[in-house]
Amino acid sequence: MAVGVFDSGIGGLTVLDAVTRRLPDLPLVYLGDNAHAPYGVRTHDDIFNLTCAAVERLWAEGCDLVILACNTASAAALKRMQETWVPKDKRVLGVFVPMIEALTERQWGDNSPPREVAVKHVALFATPATVASRAFQRELAFRAIGVDVEAQPCGGVVDAIEQGDEILAEALVRSHVEALKRRMPHPEAAVLGCTHYPLMEAVFQDALGEGVKVYSQANLVAESLADYLTRRPEMLGTGTESKFLTTGDPKAVSSKSTQFLRRRIEFQAV
Ligand code: DGL
């Protein structure tokens, strides 16, 4: 049994880590499409084609269930994949729904009609492609009414984090928060809708102010996966070992990932 975890690059390792903490015995096959990262500035067609190719590769590893641990792929490609492409015996799940269920205080899979919820003003921070997709607003509208969402495309932050330039990443986060606050001065909640942003969570929180509840998705996704697997244990595939695959240069990706997560990670070529 193994579950696939896909990301455009190394950011999804934040999700993988949370899943490993929650389900320590579950083998996970991680695939980073580093050769084509970042996805956040690509077209939706491009993101769809790249994500499908990567998911097929994870199915070949015996992972019948694949988590898209990438907000950009979840936002720009997942709905189309589920509607037109995923065969009946496979599942592809994204990272948006668990976060929206937490925000709207819903149990997993609660499909009752949308209702009023406690939060009324939500700030979304994400990549330009995620913001352009409006997937967050669409999924939210299925579950909640009367919630005002202001989305801020955070250009440059992923690159600065990947380059290890913390000073630049912090300055960019602060300027994106300022830009958002000019349009929505008093958000009640903020959603960090990109795999890299949990690493900057303290800066987001500081720039937003103490009263704003910041939702970071890694733990929410891990919890939701654990819940899913107790309901659908047949989705545990046939793979047996954890591994890290990349479409990029395994040496370079391993060393960047080790720096990113502060523990040794060995990638192999797909
Ligand atoms: N992993 C992507 C996400 O969560 C960020 C990196 C990218 O742009 O590819 O949106």
UniProtKB/TrEMBL annotation:
<keyword id="KW-0573">Peptidoglycan synthesis</keyword>
<dbReference type="GO" id="GO:0071555">
    <property type="term" value="P:cell wall organization"/>
</dbReference>
<feature type="binding site">
    <location>
        <begin position="39"/>
        <end position="40"/>
    </location>
    <ligand>
        <name>substrate</name>
    </ligand>
</feature>
<feature type="binding site">
    <location>
        <begin position="71"/>
        <end position="72"/>
    </location>
    <ligand>
        <name>substrate</name>
    </ligand>
</feature>
<feature type="active site" description="Proton donor/acceptor">
    <location>
        <position position="70"/>
    </location>
</feature>
<dbReference type="InterPro" id="IPR001920">
    <property type="entry name" value="Asp/Glu_race"/>
</dbReference>
<dbReference type="GO" id="GO:0008881">
    <property type="term" value="F:glutamate racemase activity"/>
</dbReference>
<dbReference type="InterPro" id="IPR018187">
    <property type="entry name" value="Asp/Glu_racemase_AS_1"/>
</dbReference>
<dbReference type="Pfam" id="PF01177">
    <property type="entry name" value="Asp_Glu_race"/>
</dbReference>
<dbReference type="GO" id="GO:0008360">
    <property type="term" value="P:regulation of cell shape"/>
</dbReference>
<protein>
    <recommendedName>
        <fullName>Glutamate racemase</fullName>
        <ecNumber>5.1.1.3</ecNumber>
    </recommendedName>
</protein>
<feature type="active site" description="Proton donor/acceptor">
    <location>
        <position position="194"/>
    </location>
</feature>
<feature type="binding site">
    <location>
        <begin position="195"/>
        <end position="196"/>
    </location>
    <ligand>
        <name>substrate</name>
    </ligand>
</feature>
<comment type="function">
    <text>Provides the (R)-glutamate required for cell wall biosynthesis.</text>
</comment>
<comment type="similarity">
    <text>Belongs to the aspartate/glutamate racemases family.</text>
</comment>
<comment type="pathway">
    <text>Cell wall biogenesis; peptidoglycan biosynthesis.</text>
</comment>
<keyword id="KW-0961">Cell wall biogenesis/degradation</keyword>
<dbReference type="InterPro" id="IPR004391">
    <property type="entry name" value="Glu_race"/>
</dbReference>
<keyword id="KW-0413">Isomerase</keyword>
<feature type="binding site">
    <location>
        <begin position="7"/>
        <end position="8"/>
    </location>
    <ligand>
        <name>substrate</name>
    </ligand>
</feature>
<dbReference type="InterPro" id="IPR015942">
    <property type="entry name" value="Asp/Glu/hydantoin_racemase"/>
</dbReference>
<dbReference type="GO" id="GO:0009252">
    <property type="term" value="P:peptidoglycan biosynthetic process"/>
</dbReference>
<keyword id="KW-0133">Cell shape</keyword>
